[in-house]
Automatic annotation (TrEMBL):
<keyword id="KW-0807">Transducer</keyword>
<comment type="similarity">
    <text>Belongs to the G-protein coupled receptor T2R family.</text>
</comment>
<dbReference type="GO" id="GO:0004930">
    <property type="term" value="F:G protein-coupled receptor activity"/>
</dbReference>
<feature type="transmembrane region" description="Helical">
    <location>
        <begin position="45"/>
        <end position="67"/>
    </location>
</feature>
<keyword id="KW-0919">Taste</keyword>
<keyword id="KW-0812">Transmembrane</keyword>
<keyword id="KW-1133">Transmembrane helix</keyword>
<keyword id="KW-0675">Receptor</keyword>
<dbReference type="GO" id="GO:0016020">
    <property type="term" value="C:membrane"/>
</dbReference>
<dbReference type="Pfam" id="PF05296">
    <property type="entry name" value="TAS2R"/>
</dbReference>
<protein>
    <recommendedName>
        <fullName>Taste receptor type 2</fullName>
    </recommendedName>
</protein>
<feature type="transmembrane region" description="Helical">
    <location>
        <begin position="129"/>
        <end position="149"/>
    </location>
</feature>
<feature type="transmembrane region" description="Helical">
    <location>
        <begin position="218"/>
        <end position="246"/>
    </location>
</feature>
<feature type="transmembrane region" description="Helical">
    <location>
        <begin position="169"/>
        <end position="189"/>
    </location>
</feature>
<keyword id="KW-0716">Sensory transduction</keyword>
<keyword id="KW-0472">Membrane</keyword>
<dbReference type="GO" id="GO:0033038">
    <property type="term" value="F:bitter taste receptor activity"/>
</dbReference>
């Protein structure tokens, strides 16, 4: 199925990473075995899931293609790109590649499962999926941090210093995020824990009970270590969004206290910004939780909760990108111009 990168058939995972005596006695809690009948989804459910996820991926590619295209055109026309434009360009390109990869994986896993389950193909998709997801999360977090630093009104010296230097630091931070994401995906790709587990299992002091307990602990520790990276941008995103909302609400309170009775358009803009930031935060949290649960193999491969995680992971890029187009002034103007041109074209 789509993005099955982290759900290898249980018997293959066990044989690859653990000695035969552990595999034959009892499967690990983190990797559950099931019969072939349990693994087979009904054709109607498969079709429905393919339609939902495929539609989300197509819409996401279109929305992010629009964001990347507008910022690329601005870069070519002006010979320079603003800091927010750079972040949006990085974010849009990473999501285009991510959702294209998701669609390709969905197609291969559904039409050519034997080819998809080949070791090289499987690990390639797994590494790419992890790298692109982490990049997307980091870029969205930096976008939230940038908006917070530029829009929020705080008088702390550290904040003022960051406000002055954020534009110069951001290109380096974006590149650093790419290298961090690449490092985590390479660690996951290489499965370095296999050699460590096998070496420890070979010690004569380990009986079967201790081996099984250690194997479970090793898998859990590996999952937590590799997934820990997605919570760092989550914390950054949450802090930046929360502090920005606090700053905007404080500013609204001051505007209300000085209001003359008429409804201030500036106040409406601030309220709209708070709503948009709240939507961004909700989408981001759901995306991180779904990705964490999916990558950690907490659910059976074809369980409804696992399928829900897949849908949420495909929903976030398109939902967040559409909100960005609606709330970013430059993107919103470009979208209206595009709508006008399309309308005139069909009218002719």
């Amino acid at each position: 199925m789509m993005s099955g990168s982290y759900h290898r058939p249980a018997h293959q995972v066990l044989r690859r990473h653990f000695p035969p005596d552990i595999e034959e006695k009892q499967p690990l809690r983190m990797i559950q075995t099931c019969s072939s009948s349990e693994n087979d989804l009904s054709p109607s459910l498969v079709t429905l899931m393919l339609i939902i996820i495929g539609t989300e991926c197509i819409l996401g590619i279109l929305a992010n293609g629009f964001i990347a295209g507008i910022n690329t055109a601005e870069w070519i026309h002006s010979k320079v790109l603003s800091t927010s434009g750079k972040i949006l360009l990085f974010l849009g390109v990473s999501r285009i590649v991510l959702q294209s990869c998701m669609m390709l994986e969905l197609t291969l896993s559904s039409t050519s499962p034997q080819f998809y389950n080949d070791d090289i193909m499987y690990h390639t998709f797994r590494g790419c999926f992890m790298f692109l997801n982490h990049c997307s999360l980091w870029f969205a977090a930096w976008l939230s941090v940038f908006y917070f630093v530029k829009v929020a009104d705080f008088s702390y010296p550290l904040f003022l210093k960051l406000k002055w230097r954020i534009s110069g630091l951001m290109p380096w931070l974006l590149q650093l995020s790419v290298f961090v994401s690449l490092g985590q995906s390479v660690l996951f790709f290489q499965n370095n824990y296999t050699m460590n587990c096998n070496n420890l299992f070979s010690l004569p002091s380990f009986n079967s009970t201790k081996k099984k307990s250690f194997a479970e602990s090793a898998v859990i520790n590996l999952v937590l270590f590799l997934n820990l990276g997605i919570f760092i941008p989550l914390i950054m995103f949450m802090l930046a969004a929360t502090l920005l909302i606090i700053s905007l609400k404080r500013h609204i309170f001051h505007m209300k206290s000085n209001a003359t009775g008429s409804r201030d358009p500036s106040m409406e803009a601030h309220l709209g910004a708070i709503r948009a930031i709240s939507y961004f935060l909700i989408l981001y949290i759901f995306k991180v939780l779904a990705l964490f649960l999916y990558m950690s193999n907490f659910f059976d491969i074809n369980s409804p909760l696992n399928i829900l995680c897949k849908i949420i992971m495909a929903t976030y890029p398109v939902g967040h990108s559409i909100l960005l187009i609606q709330d970013n002034p430059g993107l919103k103007r470009a979208w209206k111009r595009l709508q006008t041109q399309v309308h005139l074209y069909f009218k002719k």
